[in-house]
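Weekend entry, working from home. Most of the wet-lab plans are on hold until the incubator is repaired, so I used the time to fold the two sequences that have been sitting in the queue since the last round of cloning. Logging both here for the record. First:
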Amino acid sequence: MMNNILPALLIGAMTTAAAAQATKPAPAKPTEPSPLQGPKVPDRTGKPTLVTRGADGRVSRLDEWPALVAVRKLKLDEKTRAAVDKLELDQAAAMDKFLTGNLTEVAAVANAFQSGDVKEGVAGVRKLRQDH
């Protein structure tokens, strides 16, 4: 009879120990983030924006006009997209014509700013805008 009781006691002790471990509270999460975790980056999906950030988190400068970047991010049909592309090409052609037609004035303005004479550079820009 003792032979039957011993295994029963062992099984009962093992299930009691397992139940005690199962009811232990989970260890508390650390209040400070792990240094290996890295920075938290908020999820910005679905929110259109012109702002782009580099790997260091700083805002990157746009290489093009903000309006042009914004239009390119829009979901336009083919006809509207073709019209926008034509406007962009027309604007670029007009700017090329303006710059090549006034190359000496533009160079004078650039030289004034490069030499540090802001007053002369602003006056040159003002004259270019008035003339054209």
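Second, folded right after the first finished:
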Amino acid sequence: MKICDENRCSGCCACLNICPTGAISMIENEYGSTVPKVDMKRCIACNACIGRCPNNKITEKKRSDYAYAVWSKNDEDIALSSSGGAATVFSRYILKNGGVVFGAAVIDNTVKHIRIDSESEIGKLRGSKYVQSQIGEVYRFVKKEVIDGRFVLFIGTPCQISGLKNYLGKYYANLVTIDLICHGTPPLKYLLEYISSIIGKKSSWSRVTFRGEKDYYLTILNDKQVIYQCKADEDLYFQAFLTGLTYRESCYQCQYACPDRVSDITIGDFWGLDKSKLKHLYTGKVSLVLLNSENGRDFFERCKENFIWERRDISEALNPKQGNLLHPSAKHGDREKFMTCYSKIGFKRAVKQTRIGRQIRNERIKKILRKNNLEFIYHIIRYFK
């Protein structure tokens, strides 16, 4: 049974959550992307999965009239967050008022959506993950919370918001949805393979970060101990992500990479902001906030006393530097080569076969040569090992 074209599937899990008999599971295809599989022995042909799939049932979209430049009044929020701490401020408001928050976290050596209900857990949701989080049956838990009358915040990629809304099938005033301006999502398997290749399959790790306190570094930690750290321009995984080599196939034709948004609020880095024109003198990280619905505008009004914020013309947000508000990410020129190699030799070696691998190798060699010592031989041997 075919729910949608596999190349258009975002892995949002709306189908898995809506299935009344549990006939749908998510499996990895040969390229590591999670896609639905239907157990025809349990399927009752109700077609709920087909009817609620965002590729078959378009989710309503709305456009913000203005852009907002915001940053938290709490310096720690900014230091530990990817941009101006908007997600943390919104989450804290919900939790202080007895609500619950659903968002992506690194848990048990994987990345998945979890539920938190206390301020002490906010740290689990901080930071960009640069990978697709596992949704599992989280939409069902969201539905239970909103039906029970809890104040609920759901933070995710636009396709995950679309999946949630299609699953719910109706509006809930006590649910606020926030989507992240998304470049694209590599399959989780790529990150897990890469970490294993860096630290060894038997080594333990508990957290991985890309942004925040150590910005634009891939950092792998075990508790508080750093076991690997590398600058974005020198790390294979990071460069493969930033250059559009490793996203899901659906990301390159993403229906959500446009000014019309599926969520109540859209957040991300405010790339292209002219800080010299801000009324508040500020040179730090700034979040872009778009208020796409009445529900989103009402929620921002409740939270804005915790921000320093300024309203900006929407054109400032819809600039070429904010590309994924205008169009999907472009494929890297070596995308097909990577995909062909990946199924044969795995993630790290496949990236090394592309121009990204050659570029990083050449830069490392130049860097080591500049040291003018025998470390050159050691690192070359280690790289090709």
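Plan for Monday: verify the second prediction. Residues 97 and 151 are 8 Å apart (CA to CA).
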